[in-house]
Design goal:
Blueprint (H helix, E strand, L loop, with lengths): L7 H28 L7 E7 L2 E8 L2 E2 L6 H18 L5 E5 L7 H14 L4 E5 L3 H14 L7 E5 L2 E6 L9 H21 L2 H27 L23 H15 L16 H11 L1
Amino acid sequence: ASALNTKSIPIKQGDLFTSHITDKYTYTFNNECIKLNAPRIVNIVQRNERISTLRKLQIAGVVANSVLSEGEQRAISLSDFLTEVQLNPNNKGVFFDDPVTSQDHHRRERIAERLVELSSQKQVIVFTHDIAFFIRLKIFAEASGLNHIITTIRNIGGTPGVISPDLPWIAQNVKARIGTLKDRLVRLKKVEREGTPDEYFFAAKSWYNLLREAWERAVEERLFKGVVERFLLGVQTQKLKKVIVTNDLIAEIEKGMTDSSNWLHDAAAGLNPTPPDTAKAETDLKFFE
């Protein structure tokens, strides 16, 4: 019976795991914690069982999730996952689903940079609802010269999984917004031809609201050359050298903003405001472009 005892197998397995896996794992894990600004107070506890070797993360004998905040736990879990990815050479592609949930802006920045860095070695796919985090990924990818593809997945009319190459309006730059406004102008013309006056009123009001927002985005992106931009953490002072502000530019911006805004506000009923027709909308869009 003693000759057939299999206890020596998990013991030997544990020894091999410690010498060939745990040491390398610990080094890689701690390195990932540094990169993600995750707490480096976690010990790896190994337990050998029949057929398998299990591990868990502990802080001085206390289970990690009883001490750390949710954000710290998630950062450590992400470090753990990234460690496993690197230790397995067969991993060619990696998926992340909203990896910055519960993280502060400092760690979100670290995570965005780390995922882009990882994408130089493996295919990385990130699903996120977080526009600010998405912008950070995009900026890091562009700065690194890495090829990347952007896809928007929406739920439209109760149908999930509708895929579009276009970014959400809030994340579009000026060039993309011009394209969106042109597409929506085509739809607006159809409403003008076939819809009721009330339908056209609401559709035109919505279109001009988007045009006004495009003017606002143009001020930060084109006039101020991105010196101060939404979703960016700092002020890009080097771009100040490219900023040129003239009275003519100011006058054009004021005219465009005024034409877009004049009738968007709630007017007195006695004035009975009439929305601009699509010919005027097309002229206003060309002026903006």
